[in-house]
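dude i think i finally got it to work??
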Amino acid sequence: MHVFLLVELSLAIISCVGRPVIMPFSFPKNAVLRQKTTITCVVSSGAGPFQFVWTHEGNSVASDSRKHVKILSESVAALTIEAISAEDLGNYTCTASNSEGRTSLLRRSFHRR
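look at this
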């Protein structure tokens, strides 16, 4: 008597689909004027590639001598402010988009002390 054992292997492929989901971010609570700070926008799920846009009070933030927008990886973008000034107070929004849609996360920035 011969016994045959048939083993079937199957691979599960998990794909990330859907619009980006942004992890909550915040500004340092102890940030002071003239101090350098960096905040990051991290996409935790969704199908890449992603495009990132930072806005301050509804206006697009472009890299200049004081502010730098940098894409750190496919799912992470950073905004660095070299020296916080009074004009940097207000609301910042990170928007991440892909072929499925876009997601924005707004945070209030530094507060006057």
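The chain has a mean pLDDT of 83.
im so relieved honestly
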